[in-house]
Amino acid sequence: MKRRPRRRYHAIRRVPQAYPGLYLRLKVAPVLPALAATVAVGALAEISALPEDVRSRARSLSDDMGTAISEKSQRIFFDTPGLDTLLIRSLSHVARRTATVGRAWARTVVAIGADRDGRMARMLPLIPRRGYDALMTGILTIGTAVGALRGGEVHVALLRDSDADPAFQEPLPGHPEAQIRRVDAPALLSDMCADIDELYWSRTIGPAVKITRVGDGEARRWLLSLVGTESMTWRSTNNPADAETNIRLMLGLESAMSVGVVRALHAAMERDGVPTERWPREPVLICGHSQGGIVAAALASVPPHEAGVNVAGILSTGGPNRRIRVRPDVVTVSVYHDQDVMPSLDGSPDRAPDRRVTVGRSLVRPRTRPLYYAHSSSTHTETVRLLERKVRVTPWGRLASAMAALQDFLPTAGEPTRVMHYEIWQDILTPTPESTWDTVAALERGGSYEPITYPIDYAVTAPRLPRIAQARRRAALPARIFTALSSLRKDRS
User: Fold this and answer.
1) CB of 192 within 8 A of CB of 182?
2) Helix (H) or strand (E) holding 318
3) Start-to-end C-alpha separation, the chain
4) Which of 1, 120, 295, 424 could cross-link 260 (Cys pair, CB 3.0–4.6 Å)?
């Protein structure tokens, strides 16, 4: 009978500082020769002096080689959970050294009197000292300087209201008609995850948000389903669920999605007749995938009157939000997959910074696109279904208590509900010479959010027992033998 392998303990994610950078380089080394060859073939396709048929074949070969490299690298990161954390930390080390050089250069400019307008002196305290903060700040500043990251004013619009006649609203000029089919109130937590699966395919300009009002009066509560990153490009579009939002959320700055979610919820409350003074007190449960989990944690990390919403429960699936400490009164369940690289993009080890309940699941590698499978919202939906089944069988412990607290937000039999869908989008700003400086200066205007920090430096020397202790251990066995022989000799006499 073949012995079933034991589940591996992924120490890389628990203590990434115990692994040197050489470990990461050895793991990704098999990909580097193929990557260099792909770049060389791609450069060959760009040489205008070559015949067009040769360039076409080179371009096709480069695409095929790129696909093969992508699959191979995905298998490497899938089979070795924790390499993603080491990669982000290696980049953070480089960013910290770069920030140190920039800080020294700024001090030199100020010291020699070359800072005529005083801008360098004002920027000097804003240069981050932590590696990850320096990495995110550098990306945000450079992206703004080249005009790639330029999200502007955020807008929301009603797509559908179950109490309206007709329920679906006319789309705004220039906006396509939303493709929404899951219009019923969720009965399970997995239903909220399944709603996210469908919201990804709503075909709207910006992300669609499903907002469900449950109950009336003092028993009224709200359910939100938030999608993750939809725009995977490094250039801002009208879709605010993009890389700029991710960077801002990691730095604790105001993001377009956070503003949009709060505005959409306020619009739903106003439409439902909730007084304005009650908006920050209405209990809210947020189910967010990927970036949606970061938005939920960011809103729950500050007091309700500051955030504008009272986040009382969070179900986060695949969200890199371990740098954010939520309020102690917020019930939080975080669902991760061991082979998912996205939760490690914050560079934090696999530790809970607060009282949240973390649930993991180990996946079996599929034939193709394993990292996409590990981070997919549908895969997390299936994991939440398995989790609901588990707590029904074993209804005790912290996990069952947290799941029961989140399930209390769901509607009971006969309880009135109202389902609304909103679209969030943003304007695109025109780059100006002051855009970069405004972005840097905004870093000191963050809210009360304070990121959790973890040890990042690699431990060069491993702790060892003192020599005295080792000597005592070595002398312990002879001493016991001598004592036994002595007692035996006494018995013979």
Assistant:
1) no
2) none
3) 58
4) 424
- 211 and 223 Cβ atoms separated by less than 8 Å: yes
Q: Which one, of 144, 135, 141, 143, lies nearest residue 123 by Cα?
A: 141
Mean pLDDT of 367-393: 93
Contact status, residue 299 vs residue 307, Cβ threshold 8 Å: yes
CB-based contact 208:227 (threshold 8 Å): yes
Tell me the per-residue pLDDT of 358-374, one tens digit each, with 9 for 90 and over: 998 999 999 889 999 99
- Tokens 């989990």 correspond to 293
Give the pLDDT mean for 7-33. 82
Residue from 48, 114, 492, 446 nearest 251 by CA:
446
Write out 149-217 in H/E/C secondary structure.
Answer: CCEEEEEEEEEEECCCCCCECCCCCCCCCCCCCCCCCCCCHHHHHHHHHHHCCCCCCCCEEEEEEECCH
Per-residue model confidence (pLDDT) at position 15: 84
DSSP SS3 for 380: helix
Amino acid at 106: A
The strand pair at 221-226 and 208-214 is best described as antiparallel
| Lookup result for tokens 């080890």 | 349
DSSP element (H, E) containing 316: strand 310-317
Where residue 14 falls among pLDDT bands split at 50, 70, 90?
confident
Cis omega (within 30 of 0) for bond into 451: no
**Residue where the block lists tokens 């959010």:** 449
Q: What is the dihedral of CA 255, 301, 268, 379, to 10 degrees?
A: 80
Length of the chain: 493
Q: What is the C-alpha separation between 150 and 439, in angstroms, rounded?
A: 10
Chain centroid to CA 487: 67
Q: Are 359 and 384 in contact (CB under 8 A)?
A: no
- Report strand pairing: 417-428 vs 208-214: antiparallel
| Helix or strand holding residue 320 (H, E) | none
Q: Say if CB 134 and CB 95 are below 8 A apart.
A: yes
Reduce the DSSP state of residue 350 to 3 states and report it. Answer: coil
Q: Is the pTM of this model over 0.70?
A: yes
- Per residue in 433-467, pLDDT (tens digit) is 666 667 766 666 555 556 666 655 444 444 444 44
The two three-digit tokens of residue 43, written as one number = 């450069």
Contact by Cβ (8 Å): 240, 428: no
- The enclosing H or E element of 135 equals helix 131-145
